[in-house]
């Protein structure tokens, strides 16, 4: 089956700091999580995390791109969450909703500069 995503994705682990935005912080839930991407595109990323994120939540992400060593900061919305291990490890899809032009260019350069790990 063909993947119908808009953007080319690359499979790679990148360090990500996920911060809940004001208004999204809940009692008993840490406001900052450290995660790794499973894949990344200009439109968003998929990550594994111990964070109990909820679809619709807006977060700030600070991604350190492993190959180019550049940092991308953006606002993203959690689009979906999948429980992988009994409420302890989750996989989540995040869509960028606030990506400034410099960050978008750096991300495009990173993705298309080494197309060997892409998923079309």
Features:
120 residues, mainly beta, 46% strand, disordered N terminus
CATH topology: Thrombin, subunit H
CATH superfamily label = predicted glycosyltransferase like domains
Helix content: 10-25%
Most strands sheet: 6 strands, antiparallel, barrel
**How many structural domains in the coordinates?**
1
Arrangement of strands in the largest sheet: 2-3-4-7-6-5
Distance between the termini: 12 Å
The CATH level-2 architecture is identified as Beta Barrel
How is this fold's topology laid out?
Blueprint: E1 9-11, E2 15-20, E3 32-40, E4 44-49, E5 58-64, E6 71-83, E7 90-98, H1 101-112, E8 118-119
Antiparallel strand pairs: 1-3, 1-8, 2-3, 2-5, 3-4, 4-7, 5-6, 6-7
Kindly describe this structure.
- With 120 residues, the protein is mainly beta.
- The protein has one domain (9-119): predicted glycosyltransferase like domains (Thrombin, subunit H, Beta Barrel).
- 10% of the residues lie in helices and 46% in strands.
- Strands 2-3-4-7-6-5 form a six-stranded antiparallel β-barrel.
- Strand 3 (32-40) and strand 4 form a beta hairpin.
- The longest helix has 12 residues, at 101-112.
Summarize the structure.
The chain is mainly beta and 120 residues long. It is built from one helix and eight strands.
